[in-house]
């Protein structure tokens, strides 16, 4: 674990370095909150740091302090590659296998000789980092970055900017402090962040109360498409590319939709299948309540992974084939789903 290595990391960070901070592809609130918080922290020590996102992220995260400094590898490959090749240290946050940064970026990260530091709470980490702070019991990578700064003895350096970034990831990854990984410690950290200047109500508003009309209409369509399999305590939704187009889909618009399926009484397993013409895949998002591991389910059937109660994956088949596959494998899990 990282605690014993903290003195080494402290020494490493005692002189300004070239540092690249990477979140996973399709970054969410925790990915952007944690990377930008770390960016602002490293800047206090005059490091030449940059957050390099594999691709773009939703508009509801674009108010985050430091958003204008983020490099997007997908559209700035040349610049991104040079920065990675020139980096002394690469932090990988909120993911734990290079392929989660997307194939193009993974190809540049893999041969890099920079010192890798992982901070992450997903299951089954790959073994690429010299310094690994991996803890699957953690609510969020943002809570871990808070711990990391605290372990470095710098909690007094957490200002309103860093606090706001960290608040975002803890809030979004815990479903606003309600998922089981939310502990008393999580609330203590949140309390400290508010004391340090995070404006909790404003942040909540920025993330959750900035819907477009078309997004709510798209949610309506997803709800209409909801199917329930009561004997397997499963509910699932679909959105085709045509439906996304009809409601002027923008990145992030479907974030959280799957939770509505999980909110049904007696349902413990929920899925949403979203067609992507551009990637030629069906993106799968899975959620569960209790013991049923959607991480295992996704690894076994949908080429993905994540956490016990929240995971993602993909299917290379078309929508009807993907749904048939899903429906036909479910009975294998009948016992697990009815525990
Ligand atoms: P979402 O369904 O919101 O895309 O993702 C749920 C959780 O699973 C997040 O923690 C996300 O990082 C993780 N996840 C999403 N897609 C994948 C995937 O393809 N592979 C792995 N290993 N994790 C994923
Ligand atoms: Mn996370």
From TrEMBL:
**Classification via InterPro entries:** DDH_dom, DHH_sf, DHHA1_dom, Oligoribo/pAp-PDE_c-di-AMP_PDE
Q: Tell me the ranges covered by the DDH domain, including all copies.
A: 18-170
Originating organism: Winogradskyella psychrotolerans RS-3
* Gene3D superfamilies for the chain: 3.10.310.30, inorganic pyrophosphatase (n-terminal core)
* Boundaries of every DHHA1 domain copy: 246-330
Gene Ontology MF: a single term: nucleic acid binding
Can you say what this protein is called? 3'-to-5' oligoribonuclease A
